[in-house]
């Protein structure tokens, strides 16, 4: 097959293409159980390869755009949202990620607050799916989401990243719901409350959550800096 | 200056070049104080831009080489060493990193054990320098090393990365010397020993360090997995 051989040989000479992709996590209520669960928006591919499969938002890096700006643009174009948390995740550069040309993808991840996530657009070619029910995505994007989830689960244990999912004030039960959604397991409410009250990152406000049937729970606020949430070199 | 304008305009059209660079940390004795300190190897640039300045080992990504393989090759070619710890650090992609063409550098970091570091080659164009006394490096490489140091200092606090600097057995004092070298400060020996004995990651052996003037200290070994040290998606 001389034609195929020529293509392979040509391909080996071309410099790798550089792309930016973004994993955008938000907590949204599960339609059945009602509890918050992790969701992310996907974009339907309208071209080959992997036409009609769903993929992470992204595209080639423009010559005049920084990596972070390209990721913020992915987020803006896909969801209409500004990022509250946007950080570089990892560069994926295996030789066989795309059947057409070698592509090195620098992947960012964004966490979106619930009031923002509620505003996010959904169209025929953009839809939000549960992080634990993605189906078969284009390229190696299932693996990228798995890695992002692994990093998120790790990071929630040793950092303040959970607060990037919450509004400016929140109840202790809402913090627990973030941990439960990220870790994918139920936590003991009393133990969790005790541990959380012992951390220096949050402080009680004088306000209470209104509208429940029970005694209104107290609202807390995050007192750390936004930079503390992130691990980027410019922070 | 029409020629200059043409160049700028041409430059804005070209796709960014993709390079791999590697920050290689090892502990070596300070020549004066004798205590272990952080060092890294640098390579003298023999071409413009930044000719004759020192730079991190690296170069353009070959079409047929994975990111990790390219970083391992940087390490091999610069020092003759195989990596015991090699992990992706960050992708640096600012618009003005190089005066010639836009370059996106995916940076890896390697940690090298002392017996390996003692074998490392040094030539006219490769030299090891103290991490806290680099001088002016080419491109944004000072900033990259600063970020690598920041990540190392963070990671030593919550992970087992310190053991990547040590041999298969070590004394508790040697672990403390790693922390002191990385954190750049002296630690209280008794407190440190107590905290270290409480971690599940190490266990005592039946062997003792020979050759000192004092009572020989006991040797310990790291019991965690190599994968635990690293944060890469393939681990």
UniProtKB/TrEMBL annotation, chains A, B:
Domain Nudix hydrolase: 15-153
Record-linked InterPro entries: NUDIX_hydrolase-like_dom_sf, NUDIX_hydrolase_dom, WH-like_DNA-bd_sf, WH_DNA-bd_sf, WHD_NrtR
Keywords: Hydrolase
CDD domains per record: NUDIX_NadM_like (cd18873)
Any one GO MF annotation of this record: hydrolase activity
Keyword Hydrolase: yes
SUPFAM superfamilies given in the database record: Nudix, Winged helix' DNA-binding domain
Pfam families assigned to the protein according to its UniProt record, in alphabetical order: NUDIX (PF00293), WHD_NrtR (PF21906)
UniProt key word Lyase: no
Protein name as it appears in the record: NUDIX hydrolase
Source organism phylogeny: Bacteria, Bacillati, Actinomycetota, Actinomycetes, Micrococcales
């Amino acid at each position: 097959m001389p034609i195929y051989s020529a293509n392979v040989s040509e391909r080996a000479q071309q410099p790798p293409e550089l792309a930016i992709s973004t994993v955008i996590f938000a907590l949204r209520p599960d339609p059945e159980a009602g509890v918050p669960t992790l969701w992310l928006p996907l974009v339907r591919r309208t071209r080959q390869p992997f036409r009609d499969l769903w993929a992470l938002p992204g595209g080639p890096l423009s010559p005049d755009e920084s990596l972070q700006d390209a990721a913020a643009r992915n987020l803006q174009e896909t969801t209409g949202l500004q990022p509250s948390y946007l950080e570089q995740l990892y560069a994926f550069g295996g030789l066989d990620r795309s059947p057409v040309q070698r592509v090195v993808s620098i992947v960012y991840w964004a966490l979106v607050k619930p009031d923002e996530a509620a505003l996010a657009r959904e169209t025929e070619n953009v839809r939000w799916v549960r992080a634990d029910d993605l189906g078969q995505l284009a390229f190696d994007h299932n693996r990228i989401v798995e890695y992002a989830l692994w990093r998120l689960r790790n990071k929630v244990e040793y950092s303040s990243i959970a607060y990037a999912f919450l509004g400016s004030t929140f109840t202790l039960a809402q913090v627990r719901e973030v941990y439960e959604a990220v870790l994918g397991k139920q936590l003991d409410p009393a133990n969790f409350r005790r541990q959380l009250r012992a951390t220096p990152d949050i402080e009680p406000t004088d306000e209470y959550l209104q509208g429940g049937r029970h005694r209104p729970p107290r609202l807390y606020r995050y007192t750390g800096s936004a930079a503390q949430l992130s691990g980027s070199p410019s922070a």
